[in-house]
What we know:
Helix content is about 15%, strand content about 25%. The chain is of the alpha/beta class. The protein folds into 2 domains: about 5-135, Hexapeptide repeat proteins (UDP N-Acetylglucosamine Acyltransferase, domain 1); about 195-245, Udp N-acetylglucosamine O-acyltransferase, Domain 2, CATH 1.20.1180. The chain has a 10-stranded mixed β-sheet, with helices on one face. The chain has a 9-stranded parallel β-sheet with strand order 1-4-7-10-13-16-19-22-25, with no helix packed on it. An 8-stranded parallel β-sheet has the order 2-5-8-11-14-17-20-23, with no helix packed on it.
Amino acid sequence: MTNxxxxxxxxxxxxxxxxxxxxxxxDVEIGPDCILHSHVVIKGPTKIEAGNIFYxxxxxxxDTPDKKYNGEATTLEIGKNNIFREGVTVHRGTVQDKSKxxxxxxxxxxxxxxxxxxxxxxxxxxxxxxxxxxxxxTVGNNVILGAVTLVHQFCSLGDYSFxxxxxxxxxxxxxxxxxxxxxxxxxxxxxxxxxxxxxxxDSVNLVKKAYRIIYRKGYSLDDAIKYLHALNKDNNQxxxxxxxxxxxxxxxxxx
Length: 255
């Protein structure tokens, strides 16, 4: 803790390792076995569970620059075993939404990636360098964001989706779908990600058929959803995940 500044009200587990020149503010809770390497800033109200690692110059729980924010005591919640690499920034929520930003478990945030106010990030995701979420974005589980991916506010990225380098996303991305380019366009399924996560061949083939129904057949979205449900007569888990991500879309699908 040499040369670090820690507010007396911060609740820090005895097992936490704090390097030099860190700043920990009031209303911060840090769970067991977390590591702050150096020059880390954590502001509250923020609750951090066990096993998280923060590299130098990451800024966690800062006030949002959103002009609607007026100093309210909004929160940030971080789950377990996440890695925040150099220069990562994460902002707390706003009262105009649910007043909190939420990050799940076992995510990797590479250098200079950004999580804005009121975002909800699930588990096992990878944000490559300088990937950034605007406010109110939802990211599912096992999602990979390529470097310099930028996601517009209120968008949703479904489970196992994948974005290429320098992708600009302005609409919702269904589960398992790969998108790339600026502006983003669908370029197929994340079949490699499905195989790495032990989806069987039948599941992969079903989701391929579902992808063609949404993106290749020229159906209206309502008709496409009817065909998807007809395809899912055996309630396949992967196909159900795909259909749910399509039906939950509020901003509109990227098609």
